[in-house]
Design a protein that fits this description.
Elements: E1 9-13, E2 16-21, E3 24-30, H1 35-53, H2 59-78
């Protein structure tokens, strides 16, 4: 599968908030200055951080990592 190359970034332009990579705008929405806008910014930031952190990994590698984290969490709870 082909994905947009990293790094991704959160972009503000006027009253809009977006996620972009290079010249591409990948997502764009109206973000107010209230609590809803703060939630939109937090969600956009989380998406960008995750995408950039997983750069270069295949879907299989991400699934394996997710599985290993779950197993480790269970083992830590047992002890």
């Amino acid at each position: 599968m082909s994905y947009t190359k990293e790094p991704w970034e959160v972009r503000s332009h006027g009253s809009n908030l977006g996620i972009g990579a290079g010249e591409l705008l990948l997502a764009d929405w109206l973000a107010s200055d209230d609590a809803r806008g703060a939630t939109c910014r937090a969600n956009a930031t989380r998406i960008v951080l995750c995408v950039n952190a997983l750069a270069g990994m295949t879907e299989a590698e991400i699934d394996t990592m997710k599985h290993n984290i779950k197993i480790t969490s269970i083992l830590l709870l047992m002890f």
